[in-house]
Amino acid sequence: MERRLREMGIPEGAAVADDTGTNSKSLYICTYKCNSRSFHARYDISAIGLSDLSSILKSKSQLKIDKLELLRKLASVEGKDVPYDMGCCLFGSQILLAGGRKPEDPEQDDTSLYELDAGTQIYLFEADDNEKTKAKVYNQGNRFGSFPPPHSHSHSHGGGIIKGDCCYGELHQGKPQPLVVEVAGKLFVLSGGPVDFPSPAFEEFNSNKGTWTTLPDPPPYTGDCRNFSYAIVGTKIMVSTPISSVFCFDADAPNPGQWSVCCAEPFPFEGRALVLDLEEDDNRNKIVFGYEHIPGHGYDVVAYTMFNDDENGYCYCHRITPLHLLTEFSELVFGTDNTFSFVHLGGGKVCFVIAYSMASFEGDDDYPILGEEEVDLIVVTFEFSISKKDGNSTRFFSTKTLGSCIFPFDFASESGSVFEAKLLGCFVR
Question: What is the pTM for the complete model shown?
Answer without folding.
Answer: 0.85
